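At this stage, I put together one protein's amino acid sequence and its C-alpha cells, which the following lines show:
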Amino acid sequence: HELLRLQAERAAVSGYAYKGETAACKAFAAAFPYEETPDQAAAIEDIRKDIGGRRPMDRLLIGDVGFGKTEVAMRAAMRVVQEGHQVALICPTTVLAMQHLRTFTQRFSPFGVETAMISRLQSTAEAKEIRKRLAEGEIGILVGTHALLGKNVRFKQLGLVIADEEHRFGVRQKEKLKRLSQEQRENPTEYLAMSATPIPRTLHMALSGVRSVSIIATPPAGRRSVKTMVLRRSDAKMQQQIRRELQRGGQVF
C-alpha cells in the first residue's frame, strides 16, 4: 500500500524536464565500444522521452545478464549529470558495486564526471570525505550498497536513482529507494530499476500500468550463452575451470 501511495504521489507532481542531448552526450554514446542491439536502442529512446517529460520517470528495465542494461542506464546518467544533477546507483552486493564503479569510472572519467562508491569497504574517514564531497556536489555519480540509504548520505541535487537487481531488495528498502527519489518535492527524481528476473509483484506493477517497462530480449552479437553445471564437489574440476578462466583473461568469484 505504501509503495502504491508513493507511486500515486509521484504521478501527481511535475518533475524536472531534461533538455535535448548535448554534444557531450552524443560523444558519450559514440564512445560505446560495441554496436547497440535494437532492443537497447528502443530502451534508450524510451528513457530519453521519460526524462525529457515533466512526469517523473518510473521505469523497469528487464534484460538478461550481459544484454546491455548497464549501458542503457549510463546513457540516462550522462544526460542527468550534464545538467548539473547527481546520480545514485544502488546494488545489493559489494562485488556488484565494485564492478559498476569500474565500468562507470571508465566511461565517465574522460568526460570529467567523478564517480565514487560507498560501502562497508571504506574506512570511516574515507566514507566521511565521500559524504562531504557528495553534499557539496563534487561527486556526480555515487555507487553503493545499502549504505547508500543511510540517513547521513545527502545529495546536493539528486536527479536519478538507478536500482540494479531491484528484486534483491526488500519492500522496506524499496520504500526507502522511492523516498530517496521523492524527497525533493519540487522536482522528484527520475527512477530506473534494472532486473534480469523481476519478482511477480514488480512485474505486476509494470504490466498493470503503475510503472513503465522496457525489455531487452536480443543478445549482443557473438554473445555466448551462460553455461551452468551441477556436479559433485571436485577440487580438480574447480581447479581446471579456474585455470581456463584465468588463461583467457577472465575473472573468478
User: Anything to note?
Assistant: The first helix runs from residue 2 to 12.
